[in-house]
Amino acid sequence: MIRIQPPGEALYDEMLLADGQCRPHYAPFWHWLKETDDKYIQHKREEADLLFHRVGITFNVYGEEDGAERLIPFDNVPRIIPAAEWRMLDKGIRQRVKALNAFLHDIYHDQRILKEKVIPAEQVLANDQYQPCMQGITLHRRTYAHITGVDLIRNQDGHYYVLEDNLRTPSGVSYMLENRKMMMRLYPELFSRQRISPVERYPSLLLQTLKESTPVENPCVVVLTPGRFNSAYFEHSFLAQQMGVELVENADLFVKDGHVFMRTTAGPQQVDVIYRRIDDAYLDPLAFRPDSMLGVPGLLSVYRAGGVVLANAVGTGVADDKSIYPYVPEMIRFYLAEEPILNNVPTWQCRRPAELSHVLANLAELVVKEVHGAGGYGMLIGPCASRAEIAAFAERIKARPDNYIAQPTLSLSTCPTFVASGVAPRHIDLRPFVLTGRETRLIPGGLTRVALTEGSLVVNSSQGGGTKDTWVLEDYPC
């Protein structure tokens, strides 16, 4: 029998109630789990690791001396979301992404939101991610973020909150797809017990979205990668293969006569849409960093003239900067005249003197993040930090207060996870993926990341986190 540890006190567990009983939408899985031998589960976990290694689902951790590729740990217990709950999330996510795209078009055109002082102008125009070269450039369908990842957490109150928006080069969707494929292969009996929304249409919907980003008929689409040493290279090659398009590096592309061309064995082929997985600063050494060995010289001039589409657009990073995050609810009210369906996490901006004082006085209770940080780096989790770490971080904040925001330490819901001692609760988040083309499309579910260390709130793979399959039920089980 599998030993199942009950959820912690004052925590919201996705599967179990406080008294140890399972939630209704988990009932079929719960009954299967109680009937299943732990040796069978362990065998399946080992089989999953072997299969993931064969497929090559690995990632690189920057800064590791050995440069070894790692396997992202995969957990066999799925995160299950009831149909009604997903409908609410779906509606709230669509609303948020629509407002973010409206914001991006506005700040590169009329700047109404700045003129009406909804957001301080200097916080946008002086932001490192704001690209003046995009001013006055009108994009097809006014879409800047074609692919968006919205990070959600559920607090101990049972409500969902948006933790951050990812509009530059959001990653992780390949793990969502491979996790589902793995679960269906290992446990086909589970999928016969309830109706689970499929996720395998994502690559075809992504290709459709990319084709809809340009008025060109039958456009040539490519995926631009920095190369095999990038931490997400598996995903770049995976998505290109799944969409049936070319995976290219900078050396494969060149600019001529106002267009971008791809070198092929049959001669140059014009490229119409580039799904780029390279940050703005490295895209074009003639326009951004002259030392970039990853970009295509002249690419920006072609892009500005409408000769090629970049997905996501240049300059989208300003909208997912953590210093802009606190204003997203106001964006929704300003552009859509609606109340936000999904709430932000309460946030203090250290650039404001009064809020800075509050943060410095309460560092031991807060989570502090760099506004440009990602991957779990450059942050302080007060309750888990030593006095020395808190003191050192306070000095960093004082030196650059505009570089930090702070938030309360949320509990993050837990989900049962296989560990050495059996099944125990571990903290999780959720990243649904949004595609914006002629219409907005969401694949039901997303990538559930799990903090495998007991008590840890950091789910990032670079910090030792793992992933789970995410099931959205099409209806409740009978």
UniProtKB/TrEMBL annotation:
Pfam families: CP_ATPgrasp_2 (PF14403). SUPFAM superfamilies: Glutathione synthetase ATP-binding domain-like. InterPro entries: ATP-dep_Glu-Cys_Ligase-2, CP_ATPgrasp_2, UCP005522. Residues 78-451 form the Circularly permuted ATP-grasp type domain. PANTHER family: BLR5612 PROTEIN (PTHR34595), SLL1039 PROTEIN (PTHR34595:SF7). This is Circularly permuted type 2 ATP-grasp protein. It comes from Pseudaeromonas paramecii. The lineage of its organism: Bacteria, Pseudomonadati, Pseudomonadota, Gammaproteobacteria, Aeromonadales.
